[in-house]
Structure formats: C-alpha cells, structure tokens
Amino acid sequence: SNDTSNGNGKQCGNLIIVVTHVTPYIENARNQFEKNVGVQQFVYEQRLESKIAQSVAEQYKKRVILTASHSFPYFLKRIPVVSKKQVILNPIDVAIDEMQERVHQLEHVIMNQDVKHLQLVLQGSVHATVNCGPIAYANAFLKTKPNTDDDDIGEEDFDESQKHLKFLFEQFLDLCESALKLNERLIQANQTEYHNNLKLNFEKLKSELDFLNHRSSYIPIFDAISGPTFAPFSC
Q: Where is each DOCKER domain found (predicted)?
C-alpha cells in the first residue's frame, strides 16, 4: 500500500512505498466460502515502536482496516482502497488478541485432525517461554499480588478485560490438553518420544501458570469412526 497525497496537489518530493501483507477482514464468517468470496475489507497490524517496550505490559499494536472499492474476487487484480480505519490496541488488548488467535488455531487443528499441523500448533503452544507468549501475558495481567494493607488482589478485582483474558487462558489450556489427547491417538509408534516431550512441555507450562488456579474441564466425545477423542467442555 502507499500514501502519496500531500493535500495540495503539488509535487510532494520523495515518495515512500510500503508493501505489506494483508488478510481478509470478516467478522462473522460461517465457513471457508464466506472467508474467501465477496471480501471487501482487509487488515494488517503493526507493533508500535515509537517507544521501546520493556515488557508485554507496555506493548501497543496498531490495526489498520482497509476497504476496497469492490469485492474480491474481481476481474481486475488491483482494486483501489477507498477508506482506511486505524485502531490502537492497548497492551492487555494485544494479549487478548494474541491468545484468541492461539485458541482459534488449536480449535482448527483439532477439528481437522491433521497430524502435521496439529503438532506444529501444539509445539508452539506448549513450549514454555517466560519472557514472551502466554506466560508473559499471564504474569503481566493476571498474576495477583498482595498489597500493603494485607488484602490480596484477587479475581474479584479483575476488570472485564482481565476476566476475558483469563477465560481465554482457560480455553487455551483445555485445548492444549485436548490436542495432546488427539495427538497421542494419531501418532505413529516412532513419534512416541516426541509426544512425551510435548506432554513434558505442557506440564511445565501448567506449572508456570499454576497461579491461575485452572481446573481441566474437557469431556470425552465419541467418534464412531476413529474412536474416542477429547474436547473442552463449554456451557
């Protein structure tokens, strides 16, 4: 995309053209057809680097939503952008957005039961890294601390964003466990050691997130063709 307008129609000097990847922006798509046909809005995101963030608690993100003059697919390969909307996500919204994406990825690979993609997503999900990813988000926004008045800042003191983030963590941990159950059923004998490493990493992840007081809530669902599998319980 490029922005070359200077508002007065005169020569604007050097032009800077920025090429970036965009993805379809569809809020309520019900299937793959709706995700790829009749798409008129697209989105890309950028980390805001004007101030060096020392932790995820200080990291902001800009989301840019572009609207084209016509919907894709179209008989022209290039369609002009007619409007642009910018949304600034504050640090906890960035965490919510990232965890929501992780939940969607796990749901997708569990539903498709594709071993290769399942293992890729699982490995990225259960690998415990303290300074980034889920553990960093939980430590920054959900870890309660006692204050000087001998009162504990508990979940009852969470605001709506914190409650939403904690709910996503509960989904995330349940889905990781469900994905591990599915992987155990689908793998070949020569992948047993790899699977055991995934389980070990998941236990480390749960240990790092122990302060969330999460209780597993998956229930068995019977698949008449491939046998029993597990999925998170949802009300």
A: 1-218
